[in-house]
TrEMBL record:
GO CC terms in record: plasma membrane
Highest taxon of the lineage: Bacteria
Membrane topology field: Multi-pass membrane protein
Main subcellular location: membrane
Subcellular location as annotated: Cell membrane; Membrane
Transmembrane segments: 43-61, 73-90, 96-116, 128-154, 166-185, 192-213, 225-245
Signal peptide: none
Keyword Ribosomal protein belongs to the record: no
PANTHER family: MEMBRANE TRANSPORTER PROTEIN MJ0441-RELATED, MEMBRANE TRANSPORTER PROTEIN-RELATED
Species whose genome carries this gene: Chitinophaga cymbidii
Keyword field contains Transmembrane: yes
Family of the protein in this entry: Belongs to the 4-toluene sulfonate uptake permease (TSUP) (TC 2.A.102) family.
UniProt name for this protein: Probable membrane transporter protein
Length: 246
């Protein structure tokens, strides 16, 4: 089972990191389908998120696609709320219901932007408004055990907040700090569970896939291709969650 998951985790990290995401949503969906324990899957998904987007943050910043001031402002409210959302006790059935709905909605938003938004021109934005939106997304990301970039990125793209590459960089940073905050929230209530013979091979797989994906995105990979593949994966994960745990 672990070998099969390693191969799929590698592919997911490759695709998601190309769009500035960590892949936590699909990691959770796969582990749920494989029958992995509830707390183990949540802790493992967040840790995989952290190692993937850490490399992404470095590569986007190195290539000039991470406006650091915007990244910090977007995350100021989200980090404590991600901790609170992660600390909130949820039954397994409620967790998968919330996650399934949130992922399906995020995928629909991404598809709408891809097919309905004909032009793209960066607008003069008030970062404070997006910081408040980021706070709500941080709380939701803490509840669902993922970093929240798949919720934030479509909102930023629809609002034409920054260039597509910069939004990928902002999403990577957002996921990193919120995943750390969410993991700390789980630790605060004693819910962090790791089995290193299971978790470590998956971490190695996503590190390799994430490094390749972030290098491709920061270099020459077209964002629209990556967004379409990512939207499909997120939609698949959300629908499978709702189907199996309705």
């Amino acid at each position: 089972m672990v070998l099969e998951l390693c191969l799929v985790f590698f592919a997911i990290a490759l695709i998601y990191s190309s769009a500035g995401f960590g892949g936590g949503s699909s990691y959770l969906a796969l582990m749920a389908l494989w029958g992995v324990g509830f707390q183990l899957m949540k802790s493992t998904a967040l840790l995989c998120n952290i190692v993937v987007v850490t490399g992404g943050v470095y590569h986007f910043y190195k290539n000039g696609h991470l406006p650091f001031k915007k990244a910090v402002l977007l995350s100021l409210v989200s980090v404590p709320l991600a901790f609170a959302g992660s600390y909130l006790p949820l039954k397994q059935s409620t967790f998968f219901l919330v996650l399934g709905i949130a992922l399906t909605a995020a995928a629909a938003l991404m598809c709408f932007r891809l097919f309905a938004q004909r032009s793209y021109k960066i607008k003069d934005q008030r970062t404070r408004s997006y910081a408040l939106i980021g706070g709500g997304i941080g709380f939701l990301s803490g509840m669902t055990g993922i970093g929240g970039g798949i919720y934030l990125a479509p909102v930023l793209r629809l609002g034409q907040y920054d260039s597509p590459k910069n939004i990928a960089g902002l999403s990577s940073f957002f996921i990193l700090v919120n995943s750390i905050s969410g993991l700390l929230g789980q630790a605060a209530k004693g819910a962090v569970v790791f089995q290193w013979e299971f978790t470590l091979p998956l971490l190695i797989s996503v590190v390799i896939g994430g490094q390749l994906g972030s290098r491709l995105s920061a270099g020459w990979l077209k964002p629209r291709w990556v967004e379409a593949a990512t939207a499909f994966l997120i939609l698949y994960a959300g629908v499978r969650m709702l189907y199996y745990y309705h």
